[in-house]
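Example record for the data management plan.
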Amino acid sequence: MTFVTNTFAAKLCRILLATAAALLISACQPDPAGLAIENVTVIDPIAGALDRQRVVVRDGRIVSVSPQQEAGEAVAETVDGQDQFLIPGLWDMHVHFLYEEALTDVMAGLFLDYGITSVRDTGGDLAQMQRLTHAMASDPAPEPNVYYSGPLLDGRFVVYDGGDPGRPKLGTGIPDAETARAYVAELQAAGASLIKIYELVSPEVFEVLAAEARAAGMPIASHVPLLMTADSAGPLADSMEHLRNLELACAANWEALLGERQRIVAEFVEGRGYDLRRSLHSLQRIPAIEAYDEARCDQVLSTLTATIQVPTLRLNTVAIELPFTDPDWPSALAGLPTEVADVWQARAHDMTQNAALADPTFSRWSQFLIQRLKANGVPIGAGTDTPIGLGIPGWSLHTELAQLVDAGLTPQEALYAATVQAARFMNLEGEVGQIAPGMRADLVLLEANPLEDIANTRQISRVMLDGSWVR
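Corresponding structural encoding:
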């Protein structure tokens, strides 16, 4: 009896010791966390396609990307990515949250619906942008990453001065160097991520704005000012928008056209900045394109190899490509507030009626120029100018990607334009834009391969923002 009792006690002691040891080990090794997307094809804008990968995400970051067959760390959640394709979260490099008031509060959600996890707002009232981004940060609903410039920095006359119905006040006048220095400092203090220089600024003020922003570590987005050429303004900026005014620099008679432009601006002493800009474009754009000189243009483009061009092809071609003829236009339009959708449908009807009257010259020039940019090593970024020109937020970025491919980019180059190139502009190359360890986990899971057909970026299965599924 004593023997039996002692044996039982010994067994009980061993059980207790084993249990205590297990609890101690468990306390030292916390439960698995994070998630893994398994058996997925990774589409990296630089590396290309990597089949059967396991992507592990923890605490908002990608912690590993490895072949599925390799032993991987334990995670709390797994997602089967079999026959699916993982791309980095997309960027729209040219948006205006404040252009159409009825859309301002819904744009962020629409961007996420379409896999756009970061946007660059390139012109809006500073105080309103501060309030908007503060409201986004306070809202528990997921919001894309927003990087904003504040207002368009214009000249003595301001194009977007708020004087016309339907054209909000997006710009502010910067008449001299002193004002330029003070305003860049104000933008930096207010939390702006970049500056945006517009078309009626003087060359002297342009140079001061660029120098002050560079000293403050703020990236510079710009139109080509009307009193400058692309090869003089471009190297001072980090991006240029719309391919606008490049046509003058590429013309055989560019010096005569510039001289005429300088004279007209000097003689303009009273009136609206919008009217001045429109009259110069109407007077000189088509003649400049007709005077295109390839050797001269290649010389100009050779100065822009460090300046990202954001063509906004879908805007430049809207009158001839007619976005509302796309099969998914009705469903995309239905996602807008009813009052906006009704107005836009009426505009679409008017554009259909007038399509035969639209001059395709600048549209075709914009499409043609993509190949010249590529041939000359000029970087290209993807932006839409949404919501201007029937630009449905989010949806329009996929139209832009398709047009970039139609104009000469490969699907992988188009993805690069909407990911790595945008990160590069914001000096975030080590943060976003690729699917690699250490990158922020902003990801889009697709049901079809975008490298086979760029239209497959529309085939969205899930959207991840900062490590969490949001769509």
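Summary line stored alongside the record: The radius of gyration is 27 Å.
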